[in-house]
Amino acid sequence: MALMKQAVIPEFFARLKKAIPEPETELEYDNVYHLLVAVVLSAQATDVGVNRATTPLFKIIKTPAEMVALGEKKLIGYIKTIGLFRMKAKNVIALSQLLIERHGGEVPHTHEELQALPGVGRKTANVVMNVAFGEATIAVDTHIFRVGNRTGLAPGKNPLEVELRLLKRVPEEYRLHAHHWLILHGRYTCKARTPECPKCVVNDLCLFKGKTTLADGVGRRT
Prior knowledge:
mainly alpha; Endonuclease Iii, domain 2
């Protein structure tokens, strides 16, 4: 796998920062518990789809206790438009119960405590730690995995390899927001099927050999 030179990485992130100075998650939430639930629901689903389901749910449910009282069956009614909704409903009720039993209804701050909750893997834990608690973690989803490999920024065979390489290679000043910049870049520019290379702000730094051009009809305004 091609590896981007370390010397150009600061410029790579400087350009992403200039394009989006204050990147944020596109999941909608009112408190840390909402964020945790939304991220659990977002697995194999779009943020738009999750927001559509959680908007009415979060209007009536603010705490783990309220979620447990709602129950799995009624929760399914709110999230049935999201993929894997039955399993996710079961996990959300179970993790809510554990938050009450183990953490006084509060969302814990560590990888270990978060990953001990049903439906919470490393990626979900990293998102919560970064967005809610300001930790410089990098949550590798499908977009970051693609961008890391395609550009040569942090190639790896699996999400954990990409995450660990990013943590080593991303300059400290950019690490807090790195995963949001990379997610948004992958979602709107470095797309899976047809990356919009002509409008990419890091095109000249990227090592991808299959770059699209204006001649391909990519990046043109219609």
